Amino acid sequence: MNPKNNLTGQGHIGWIETSICIGSFVHVKMFLANPRELCQMGGTAAWMLPLIGFFGATIIFFILNQLTTTFSRASLLSIAGLFWGRAVQFILGILFSVSFILINGYQLRIFAEFVLTTLLPQTPISTVVISMVILNVYLAFGGFESLSRTIMIIAPIGLTVLTLALTFGGSMGNIYNLSPWLGYGFWDTLGTGVLYTSLYEEIILFGFIAPLFREQKDFRRSGLATLTLSVFLFVFAQVVYEMCFQIRSAQQMGFPLYQVTRLIRFETFLQRLDPMFVFVWASVSSIGLAVGLYSGALTLAQGIRAPDFRPYLIPLAVLSICVAFIPPRSLDAVQTYSIMPWLLQVPFFGLPVVLLLWSKLFYRSGESHP
Amino acid sequence: MTNNSKGANKVTAYIKDLLSVNESTTQTQFSVSPNRPPIRRHLNINKPQKPETITPIPSDVHDLHQLLKGTFRAKRNPDFIIRLLTASWGRITLAFYESVTNSELMQESVIGPLLEYAGSVEDITPQRLADALTYCHVIETISSFEDAVKNIVMGMSLIHIEGFDWAIVVDLRQQQSRGIGTPRIETVVPGPYDAFVEAAQKNLSLLRMRLAVPGFMAESLPSGRRSRGPLYLLYIDGLTNPKLVWEMRRRLKSIDVDMIYNIGMIEQYVQDRPISLFSQMLLTERPDRTVAFLLEGSVAVMLEGSPLVLIAPVNFWSQLHSPEDIYFRWPFGTLARFVRLIGLFISLFLPALYVAMVSFHPEMIPTELMLSIASARERVPFPSFVAVFFLELAFEFIREATLRVPKVIGATIGIVGAIIIGQAVVEAGIVSPVMIIVMAITVLAGYSMPQYSLTFSLRIVRLINLLLGSIFGFYGVLLGLVALIRHAVGLRSLGMPFLTPVAPLEKRFLTPFFRKPPFKEEKRPGYTRPLDTFKAKKVTRPWDASVPLELVFLDESKK
Amino acid sequence: MRLRFQKISLFFALLTLVLQTGCWDRNELENLAFVLTMGVDRSIDNQIDVIMRIAIPGNVAGPTGKTGGESISQTTKPITITARSIPEAVSLAEATVERRIDFRHLRVLIFGEEIAKEGILPHLDVLERFPQFRRSVYVWVAKEGPARNVFLTAEPVLEKSVSRYVDDVARGVIRYGYSRMPTLHDFLNEVDNRQSDAVLPIVGVNPIVSSEKKDSSIKPMPTDKYHQEIAGNTEPGGKTLRALPRSGGNPSEFLGIAVLQEGRLIDKWSGWDARIYGLLRDSYRGGIWVFNTPNGNETFSVIIRRARGPSITVTWDGDVPHIDIRLFLEGQLMNVQSQESYVSTEGIAILESQAINTITKEVDALIRRAQKEKTDPFYLARSIQTQSLTMQEFDNLDWKNRFSNASFTVQADFKIRRPGLRIQSRSDESR
Are residues B520 and B384 part of one domain? Predict the structure, then answer.
């Protein structure tokens, strides 16, 4: 009956690949304007914000885990459909798809602005956006398996280069730039940190790709690995960024991590390697963007109970391009993109919570459990 | 009007085609992974396409001769011999091709015993006849004329005795083949120096010389409608995963063509993704390599008349490996593998990166070098990517020319190409000297790949990357890189992911890069899912106790 | 069939679309004019002079063995444009320079003394904003007069390449310690810090050497004339802001630092002061120091290296801070000019304490000088920063005012670890 039932017993995705893949989705924002925003919100304590958000995200993930255990790793939307009927599933599917495409579109725009600022100042932005979207569609067309395997090849290089860049960058910085230790104060930092649980809102994707996992153990492991990897990289990047820049500079820096790599300089021959770093980061980001597009298509397919997500990739990619061109200035794009996650974490984190509550309070598994 | 609407229809159909995908094909892809259900889409290979006519063998000598002569056009084809022997006990017909039959063997093992046959004619049976021919090992009884024809074209000799509606065929073929020579493509410094030849029997003997297991199978399968030699499907029963054997057999049997000229054609027929630029199977001329792959759980295909063996499944990394890596001690092997990995990267990306750096990101080049490149480029009228294209073309010409030119002057061409063109091109100011260095390194890196076909794949991909790099700089190279990886991870070699064990990640994902000392590897690589996982005992060096000398007197002092 | 034709035509359409893009950002190296160094001076009419030194690739040693330019005046050409701002100067320069001007290989930016006194921050905005400029360029300030003089006189002793010259100078500064060469990034970081002031190296033009320069080659003057020129110079070189007594070589010399408050030059410190500054700011790494021996006017020399960073503790007495500074140094004896027998376990301690005395005295003098000007380029507040909890608390510190009334103690920890290859000198006692 359910087309996904055919897939049970079919191929599964490895938990390490999944973690790195979704990790790169979470991480797209780090290469964009995120470290600066964190510095604006948290001052010198900005590096703690991802750490605080991490705990919130872990709770959400355990809720997700509980939910998927109860329903033997059905998709969140299928569970919603089971509870509240097809119409709700449909609406939720559209809602999530639109959210993902909104995120994707804005990320695309800022990514293109990034490429324009750093590598190709005179190339029209549309060329960059469209070429990236074509690549994303190609990547997403093979489904999650191909996405995760692709990142598996890029990740060793990407992680090495990222770590190298950050370590070199960090060696240019001063540890006392991290102090005063509590930023704008303890409660301020804590509050902002909780708000920045939105850094990890992409983990909701686990709820939609849950059927792809072989065992619940893999699901749990993968989610926690994603969160750990993300928090590690977020904190690492943020610490390095703050060490390199006096907080007042850091709050006004365009494309923060790029600026960090531009400082790297060891002898005469080992300097100005930033295009190289940008090159590697952008390849990781391209996967992240592709995962965004894929999520949009997948949630739409699940919401309207379509047997295949691939037909939606190209229309959604076109929509995403349209979204990318909504903001007239790059400043507007960054502004909107920094607020959007705060709003989107309501449905993203709310859905699993509500579903879990509903399943505990109102739902009896005897009724129509498959 | 109608044209217009037709056109519109086509456009809508085209857009529909572009935007939609076929029914999901989740069940049809072959995979070795145990999680995936077996393939249900079987071709009905056993059922022949046309009903075969069966003509009984005429018992009358005259009729048989007429029929044979007609079929083989004996008058115009003196190579085909029909001989009528009259023995004391009856008349015997022999039919064979002279060119492929060993006439001495014919005399000794067939004609002699037959003439001396002492039994009665009435109770002669195929079995008794076969018993009489003590020198022949391959004897088959046939009862239809079609079978007779089929066997004769295969090079067998037909023996028929008057008055019976059966015949026997014996194998008296003589293999015309060159002697076993040294490898030509895959040369190694330490290691065996024998290579496969065109005769499959000799090749099999080379393999059996090394492999002493009863399970080593050389299944013969028909090859082509009009080609003689069988295909051999090689595997080790009890070690190779039977799923792989089934799948390969299925694919081989589905090839229904006139003629397979060389094993390279089979590669194209049975490959999972023949459109890809990368070959997903391995062709080797080395028996030792074949044996190694068979023992790792792959299957191999051998074709009569081809000195190469097709091996599948293989992963991409094995195309970067050479048997030397194993024969040398482990540090050299590991180093060589890393060198080749760097070579792979350079061969794919160096020209693109160079063009991107020179014309998009000059900040990456140290100032002095940048200025010296700039001063060299001031005399060059073309943009750098044109120069790279020009050099690529020149190198292609040199390569083709050295292949085609007669061997006697072949060596000179290389020198002429390399020195004259290299030197003169710079002198004439068409390309800059740095560019020559870049291209030379690139080409050398390309030829450091042990697998010959990989070099060609890399060259094409390199050109694509170069194009992207000269349009978008590093951003373009990035697009190319990611798309290339996406393409590569989607490939499968006989159902096995091509980039395993890296993507998908397996436990021993470092084995392609670090060659462990042989005594530390007890397991076969798991990705072919062999039935027998261990290839060695856990401890193969039980005598190796590295203890410092001091322990001796420390021990004494205890006493 | 039709479909395939359509696919092919679509592919070609895309290909041509892509190929059209070929000329957006692709700039071959020979189409670019790389500016290696740049100077900014106050010009007439409230405008600025922007001096750009453009590299001439053809004169850099060519590939086919042809000899390149002999000096930086042959491998580069300076051009000066007067405009209201740097971007305007760049755009005007494009009108005269055939190739497109590119700043991606810019190494150093030199400000004239006058414009430095007015404030350099307005001119740095373009460097922060425009991607072609990097935050790793060096910023120098001319000691006296305009930066243009530095450009016109500079004549490296060895280097033909400007960028290598700059790199060598920056490396040399770390070696001898008479100055500090922060990059633009370091400088801006210090500017953004409200509790600290920034410094920049000053480039002096030696009048004697520059008078020797004729047609981009330097002809050293006869000894008699040279001795006349340097007569009356009693202080050792580098102690004051005076130019070094020397002849021949490069007219530019790199001793001393400029102290800037909010981007305005407020004081210039000599080479000796710069070393002391380095000790306090923890930017000092090593250098040769010459001290008087305790009994007499003879000297001894020590290579002093930083053993570890200085420890700075600030204690509060009400509103008045008390700063405790402790320096950790170690050294290697280089010579004992006096030929006295100091090199023994007891004797060497005398040399050490002599060095410590001199250093603490100089530190004391320099801090008092800074306090007088209400400036703290040493960033002594860094120990407070690491101890404060919130940013508001630290921002409201008003350190510079408090620093000017602060009391302080200086201690130095100095050990001469190695005597070198000879133990005792040829003094009377040992003979």
Answer: no
Would an 8 Å CB–CB cutoff place A138 in contact with chain C? no
From B36's Cα to the closest Cα of chain A, the distance in A is 5
Query: Which residue among B135, B170, B205 closes a domain?
Result: B170
Give pLDDT, residue C15.
Answer: 66
- Comparing alpha-carbon positions, the chain A residue that sits nearest to C136 is A263
Provide the domain limits for residue B150: 61-170
User: Could C30 and B377 be called an inter-chain contact, meaning their C-beta atoms sit closer than 8 Å?
Assistant: yes
pLDDT tens digits, residue range A14-47? 888 899 999 999 989 888 889 999 999 998 999 9
Please check whether residues B261 and B351 belong to one and the same domain. Answer: no
For chain A, domain boundaries: 11-355
- Residue-wise pLDDT for B233-286, tens only, equals 999 999 999 989 998 998 888 888 888 888 888 999 999 888 888 999 999 999
Within B277-360, residue ranges assigned H as helices are 287-295, 323-327, 330-359
Q: Domain check: are B88 and B183 in the same one?
A: no
pLDDT digits over B384-417, tens only? 888 888 888 888 888 888 888 887 776 777 777 7
A130 interfaces chain C, CB cutoff of 8 Å: no
pLDDT for B547 beyond 90: no
Q: What is the CA radius of gyration of chain C?
A: 27
Domain C281-431 fold:
GMP Synthetase; Chain A, domain 3 (3.30.300)
What is the secondary structure of B139-161 as a DSSP string?
EEEE-BHHHHHHHHHTT-EEEEE
Number of domains chain B contains: 3
Q: How far is CA C126 from the centre of its chain?
A: 21
Model pLDDT for residues B164-185, shown as the tens digit of each residue: 888 888 888 887 778 888 888 8
* Two tokens, residue C94: 């494009």
pLDDT band at A172 (very low <50, low <70, confident <90, very high): confident
> Quick check: helix, strand or coil at residue C414?
strand
Cβ of B504 and A17 within 8 Å?
yes
C242 at B interface, C-beta within 8 A? no
Same domain, B74 and B147: yes
In words, the CATH class of domain A11-355 is: mainly alpha
Residue closest to A266 by CA, chosen among A187, A340, A165, A194: A165
Give SS3 for B521: coil
Question: Last residue of some domain: B136, B170, B204?
Answer: B170
Residue in chain C closest to B432 (alpha carbons) equals: C63
Per residue in A213-268, pLDDT tens?
Answer: 888 888 999 999 999 999 999 999 999 999 999 898 899 988 888 888 888 877 66
To which H or E segment does residue B234 belong?
Answer: strand B231-236
**Quick one: tokens of C91?**
């755009």
Q: Do C25 and B470 touch (CB under 8 A)?
A: no
Cis peptide before A180 (omega within 30 of 0): yes
Per the domain annotation, does B262 fall within a domain? yes
Residue C221: other Cβ atoms inside 10 A: 17
A119:B21 CB<8 A? no
**Interface size, chain A vs chain C, as Cβ–Cβ contacts under 8 Å:** 79
Residue scoring higher pLDDT (B83 or B18) = B83
Same domain assignment for residues B272 and B135: no
- Is the Cβ of C385 closer than 8 Å to some Cβ of chain A? yes
A94–chain B nearest CA distance, Å: 19
List of chains touching A (3+ CB pairs within 8 A) = B, C
Interface test with chain B among A18, A153, A214, by most B beta carbons within 10 Å: A153
Give the gap in angstroms from C-alpha B379 to the nearest C-alpha of chain C: 9
Whether the Cβ atoms of residue A216 and residue A68 lie closer than 8 Å to each other? yes
Chain centre to alpha carbon of residue A265: 31
* pTM of the full structure: 0.87
Same domain flag for B159 and B117: yes
Confidence of residue B4 (pLDDT cuts 50, 70, 90): low
ipTM: 0.91
CB contact under 8 A, B378 and C57: yes
Chain B residues touching residue A272 (CB < 8 angstroms)? 363-364
CATH 3.30.300.210 occupies which residues in chain C? Answer: 281-431
Position B32 in a domain: no
**C163 has a chain B CB within 8 A of its CB:** yes
